[in-house]
Design a protein that fits this description.
Alpha-Beta Plaits; 7 helices; 40% helix; binds inosine-5'-diphosphate; binds magnesium ion; nucleoside diphosphate kinase activity; ATP binding; NDK-like_dom_sf; nucleotide metabolism; NDK-like_dom
C-alpha cells in the first residue's frame, strides 16, 4: 500500500549555503504540498535517535555529527505517490551519481553532505514525521 506523504529535511550544508528557498521552490514546483514545516536544529542525541537505523554503518558517527552541526528545515510533504516521486526529485544518495536537474545534483557537494533527506517508505515517513511534528502542527 502506498500513502501520499513523505518526510524531508533540508540538511545543514544546504541551509548554510543559502539554498532553503530554492529547495522549497523545487518541492512546490514538483507538485508537493507543504503539510508541516519547521526551522530547527538537531542535537547529537536527537540526530542519533533519528538515524538509529544506521547505527551499525561505518559512517553513522560522522552522519550524526554532521546532522547536528547546524540548523535544518524539516517538513512533511503531500503528493500522490509521494515516496517514490520525492526520491526521484532528490536524486541518488551520492550527488556525483544524481541525475541532472535533481536537488542533490544541483545543491549537494558530497555523499555525506547531500542537501536533503527523503523517506524511503511509507512506514518510515510516518515515523520520521512524528519525530518532528505533533498533530496540531500539520495543516
Ligand atoms: P538516503 O539519504 O539516500 O536514503 P541512506 O543510505 O539512507 O541514503 O543514508 C543516509 C544518509 O547517510 C545519506 O543521506 C548520507 O547523508 C549519509 N551516507 C550514506 N552513505 C554514506 C557514505 O558512504 N559515506 C558517508 N555518508 C553516507
Ligand atoms: Mg535513507
Amino acid at each position: 500500500m502506498s500513502t501520499n506523504r513523505t518526510f524531508t529535511m533540508i540538511k545543514p550544508d544546504a541551509v548554510a549555503n543559502g539554498h532553503i528557498g530554492s529547495i522549497i521552490n523545487d518541492f512546490t514546483n514538483a507538485g508537493f504540498k507543504i503539510i508541516a514545516l519547521k526551522y530547527t536544529k538537531l542535537t547529537d542525541e536527537t540526530a542519533g535517535q533519528f538515524y538509529a537505523v544506521h547505527a551499525e554503518r561505518p559512517f553513522y558517527k560522522d552522519l550524526v555529527s554532521f546532522m547536528s552541526s547546524g540548523p535544518i528545515v524539516a517538513a512533511i510533504l503531500e503528493k500522490d505517490n509521494a515516496i517514490e516521486d520525492f526520491r526521484k526529485l532528490i536524486g541518488a544518495t551520492n550527488p556525483a551519481e544524481a541525475a541532472e536537474g535533481t536537488i542533490r545534483q544541483k545543491y549537494a557537494k558530497s555523499i555525506d553532505a547531500n542537501a536533503v533527506h527523503g523517506s524511503d517508505s511509507d512506514e518510515n515517513a510516518e515515523i520520521e514525521g512524528n519525530f518532528f511534528f505533533k498533530a496540531d502542527e500539520r495543516f
